[in-house]
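Researcher: Watch the backbone:
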Amino acid sequence: MNPSRVAVLQNTAIFGGVRADILQFILDASPQIAVAKGGFFFREHERADSMFVLEQGEAAVLKAWQGHEYLLHHLHAGDCFGEMSLIDLQPRSASLLALEDSCAVEIGSATLAEVHAHDLAQLALIYMNMGREVSRRLRAMDECLFAERIKLIPASGHYTFSPK
């Protein structure tokens, strides 16, 4: 067992509260992916059946629009990314660019299916944590969207809602 790698997972929102033996099982079944500075872990619209935990390095979440890529978020060691695809079974919604030489553990849906066979309660905890993390991110984006909409209110400062 590698306690330092297990600790990295335990300190993430998605794997918080998951037993060390389950985390070690996940690590043993999951490849480490190294990406050089300027390379991509994945690109927007690619098929997806895995998530990642950044173990080393720094990365940028990028969204394409009208031929340009825009920064959505910076990620650092210990951050998770790509988990939305495990929940909604959709292609990648953004690209993940390594800003420096980086390494991440790639946790596939097949590995999580194996966790199901070992301990259903631990898998339920992982997915519940994923839901919480996605919800937290959605709330943060709601606040950003609201702040931008407030900027559009006329100088009078009044905005009324009229139900139809």
